[in-house]
Specification:
6-stranded mixed beta sheet; alpha/beta; 8 helices; Rossmann fold
Length: 188
């Protein structure tokens, strides 16, 4: 996971130094593990601090989405495009008789209202495709990815970079500015 984030950060920051990237770690709780930055050295150092960090087997995706929305509001770079890449190896843990999409509805509505573009990446066999499709900005065939394990994320940097940088016939990636939060959940 860390190699993937580092490679993606390097690629996107090289295309536009105005980009900001950060990490939200989530399981039973969500934490702003790396605050958004455009400093490659800072991001690499902070990634090293995250190595082998694991919370538990609970997947509270809605808390991570809520945290991402709060960060986008706090930073408030009005001219910047907002991008969220959600990387998960599970399905949202039910809470108070509510299931996946029902729990995701409110934070996703908040993110959509804020204009956040979402890409969903499911890792492994325990993911919920309905949730991934719900979280991704349409069309799903362009913004939902499935991989077998976290090591494959590194191989996907070019594909995700192309998806991130695509601005339907208007401009190139170099002229776009993105804020990026990576939602991630470690499971070894």
């Amino acid at each position: 996971m860390n190699r993937w984030f580092g490679k993606l950060a390097k690629k996107l920051l090289a295309l536009n130094t105005e980009s900001r990237m950060g990490v939200i770690d989530f399981s039973a709780v969500s934490n702003e593990a790396i605050q958004p930055s455009n400093d490659q050295k800072f991001l690499e150092k902070e990634l090293g601090n995250l190595k082998d960090r694991y919370q538990n087997g609970v997947t509270r995706t809605e808390l991570a989405l809520q945290k991402a929305w709060e960060i986008f509001l706090r930073i408030n770079r009005a001219a910047a495009k907002k991008l969220l890449i959600i990387v998960t190896d599970g399905r949202t843990t039910p809470l108070n008789n509510k299931q996946g999409i029902e729990l995701l509805q409110e934070p996703m509505d908040n993110l959509r209202t804020e204009g956040v573009y979402c890409i969903a990446v499911g890792v492994g066999d325990l993911i919920n495709n309905e949730e991934l499709n719900f979280m991704a900005t349409g069309p799903n065939e362009e913004n939902v990815f499935h991989i077998h394990d976290y090591d494959k994320l590194v191989d996907m940097v070019d594909t995700i970079s192309q998806t991130v940088c695509k601005e339907k016939g208007k401009t190139t990636c170099v002229s776009l500015r993105y804020k990026l939060e990576i939602l991630k959940k470690y499971r070894y």
